[in-house]
Amino acid sequence: MDEAALCYTPAVVLAREIRSKRLSPLELTEAVLRRIEALNPKINAFAAFLPEAARDAAKAAEAKLAAGEPLGPLHGIPITIKDLTWTAGIPTEYGSHLRAGFVPPEDAPLVARLKAAGAIVLGKTTTPEFGWCGLSRSPRSGITHNPWRLGLNAGGSSAGAAAAAACGFGPLHHGSDGAGSIRMPAHFCGVAGLKPTYGRVPNWPLSNNDYTTHNGPIARTVADLALMLEVMAGPHPWDHSSAEAPPLPYTAELGRGVRNRRIAFSPDLGHARVDPEVAERVRQAAAVFATDLGAHVEEVVPSWGAEGPELIRFFWPAHLAIHAPQLAAWQTRMDPGLVACIRAAEPFGLLDYLRMRERKYHYINAISRFFEDWDFLLTPAVSVPAFPPERIRPADWPEHAWDWIAWAEFSYPFNFAGNPAISVPCGWTREGLPIGLQIVGRRFDDLGVLQAAAAFEAARPWADRRPPLL
Questions:
Q1: At residue 10, does pLDDT exceed 80?
Q2: Does 115 participate in catalysis according to the annotation?
Q3: Which domains does the chain have, with CATH numbers?
């Protein structure tokens, strides 16, 4: 197997090869490190790259394998961690000059679980400042480029994670998602990304955004998402909001399919503007569930859809206003869009917040009631293909000081409601840019969402398609 093919081999295959001693953890790690060293200068996926630490971990993994010691499910598998998540002894700078030089004293629980499973941490992947937007830029790390075309948005806020997955910088990548930050970069970079049910993966330190931040995997195949989720999932005492449910054997049960399942398809949630090419590819993907996979698919306009835009445009600035006290000293070194978003919350008062929160709970209830009638909902993952990240919106959309959400109306409803949702590639534009399909399930049906995605992947495979520039 040539080195590029090795770097694109799924983790489920690599894990078997390592356990059978047909592949050395050090050989795999060295191949991935060489690929990163050759290609990352073009892409800029890493906020912190740790080649020597990865080599040391690979050597230790090799020794453990040779000694016949018990091995975890990710033994010797290279992974990355997003720069919003604590990693002991490794800088965690949140894409911001405000946190420059911060080195956490301990690992977040999900990081500790990945390491305990035998994974080898390659480094920290880039994020926009404090994860504030869906654009792959930050004042701390600069622009992370889309591997399908340099100079275009790789998505955010798990920008480096999705770009790394598309580049073959290892098979497994951690992301987090507060309004689409796993699914948006998966869409832009042509990979798969799962936002699990809220609480399925513990979140610590807990975000100050009213329980909307989810942690999950980004990879090139659905089976790899399932494998990584199995390791990260499960309750943890440090996160009082984590779900009191152990992980299921997601990987072993992917093959159920969706025959006779009831699937709703909404091309626009009743209000969103969608690029014509995106709309066409997503509609074709929805048809696959009926024609190839045996599901009952019906186009719908959700009654709750039109309520979302006002809610998100209140809560997004309101929660980012936690950084308002830093503006006087730091705003000239902060992302101007983030500064504008923080300032948009200045008119809000406590009573405004409580009234809008009550409205949000009614909105969440409406989404929950919707899923009493449907097993899954299909939508675009994002309204547009990749565009330059220096802009808040594509050139043919009206520009705004901070409101990137206009092209991401499909993701945040399920952060509010906590439903599992996945983005998987469903086609490419005429210019060769990826398009993602979002599959949403009922709360706690992460397995069902993975099964639906796996069925679509089998019907319309994507993992062998690689960015031509690489």
A1: yes
A2: no
A3: 3-256+379-459 (3.90.1300.10)
